[in-house]
Design brief:
single chain; alpha/beta; 7-stranded parallel beta sheet; 13 helices
């Protein structure tokens, strides 16, 4: 079956991802020399909900030893930035906070860049809300209590005169119909911004299990408000613009985006103009990847996991010894 799929891709001129370990020695060297920056997802690449992915730290350190600049980009706002940095270090990946792009950081940097003043209504994780408060922004949230099934009582919770100038929506375990309706009420105001974080429709728990993500709720609010969302989670354009500016990337082809999700990681890498590599440690199977027809989510390369980069670089060293 896989042979048939490869033949189909060749006939239809659909670009086919290359397994990094199946490249020739010369191709491996050319690929390694073709990028300076490595941007990578974390969940499904370094670890999943239950375990660390075997060899992931070794793979990233092999790239660092080869002279590559490592930066991690996560859509996961539930784990605060500080905890994420510490967990990476426990997995032998030593970075500082500057090289971790977290939804709260991207949102705060944007709000500061436009000198935002006003109240923010937040449907988001405690991590994001706390980060916004720490930077001095005024936050509204809730209601968190159970609302009686009465439209009169409901409107008492939804309609508000609070001077809200932005709605931030991300991953909120306690999101309700009432909070969505309240956000929509604020967005009726022409000067109210709509800012989003994680766009994931599915969240990997293990390699074989995913659960519903927040992406659908962001889309509902964007459609209902008829406002274009400024999205600071992958694959958002606002995040892409911010990243290219932050690292002053003059030649996007000299960067490699690594991830386990097609719509979030690979689409984001393509949007930035980066080379892209999919790792299968998040649960996708190679047969599924080879059937892809949308060029915006077809990676340039793939690997079983980050551990493959250890063998990949050792092969290059052997070929030049």
């Amino acid at each position: 079956m896989l042979t048939f799929i490869k033949a189909f891709h060749k006939m239809s001129r659909i670009p086919q991802p290359k397994n990094i370990l199946q490249l020739t020695a010369d191709e491996k060297r050319k690929f390694l020399d073709s990028f300076d920056f490595v941007f990578s997802d974390i969940d499904g690449v370094v670890w999943n909900v239950t375990d660390t992915i075997d060899g992931s730290g070794d793979g990233f350190n092999a790239l660092r030893e080869a002279g590559k600049k490592l930066t991690f980009i996560t859509n996961n706002s539930v784990r605060p930035e500080e905890q994420c940095v510490e967990k990476l270090k426990r997995n032998k990946i030593d970075i500082d906070a500057h090289d971790l792009i977290h939804p709260s950081k991207s949102i705060i940097e944007y709000l500061k860049s436009i000198k935002f003043e006003g109240t923010i209504y937040a449907i988001a994780s405690e991590s994001i809300k706390n980060a916004l408060k720490k930077e001095g922004f005024q936050i509204l949230e809730g209601p968190h209590e159970i609302v009686e099934e009465s439209f009169r009582d409901l409107m008492g919770h939804v309609i508000s005169r609070d001077p809200v100038k932005a709605v931030v929506i991300d991953f909120d375990f306690n999101l309700t119909m009432t909070t969505m309706m309240k956000a929509h009420f604020y967005l009726r105001r022409p000067d109210c911004l709509l800012i989003g974080g994680a766009t994931d429709y599915a969240l990997p728990v293990t390699k074989d299990l995913s659960v519903l993500g927040p992406g659908g709720f962001l889309k509902v609010l964007e459609d209902a408000s008829r406002k274009e969302m400024l999205c600071f989670g992958k694959p958002g354009k606002a995040l892409a613009d911010s990243l290219l500016k932050r690292y002053n990337i003059q030649d996007p082809c000299r960067a490699l985006m690594i991830g386990d999700m097609l719509d979030q990681d690979i689409r984001f890498g393509k949007r930035c103009g980066f080379q892209t590599l999919l790792v299968l440690s998040g649960g996708l199977k190679v047969e599924e990847v080879m059937k892809l027809t949308d060029p915006n989510v077809i990676p340039n390369y793939y690997a079983n996991s980050m551990k493959d980069f250890v063998e990949f670089i050792n092969d290059i060293k052997k070929s030049h010894s």
